[in-house]
Amino acid sequence: MGSALPASGSVPVVVEIRAFAFDPAEVTIRAGETVRWINHDFAPHTATDDEGNWDTEELEKGGQATIRFDTPGTYPYFCAYHPHMKGVVIVTA
Prior knowledge:
Elements: E1 4-6, E2 13-18, E3 21-23, E4 26-30, E5 33-39, E6 48-49, E7 64-69, E8 73-78, E9 86-92
Parallel strand pairs: 2-5, 4-9
Antiparallel strand pairs: 1-7, 2-3, 5-7, 6-8, 8-9
């Protein structure tokens, strides 16, 4: 399965968390690149892999987390506190 590691030196693709939604809900990156989630809501949120392989942990308002994706694949995720919030990271070779 895919591997998600802490960020390296690459410039991340940013996913904004606003109004209980991931924006954009779908991002496409190349293997070895990173995604950064930034929470702009007052409520805490997470970006949690559907398979449980990676998690940003709790992001308070203004909080952010960056994860590097090394393995091509499709990685659906959700907010552990608000499961209706869904997104996907697509990693290409």
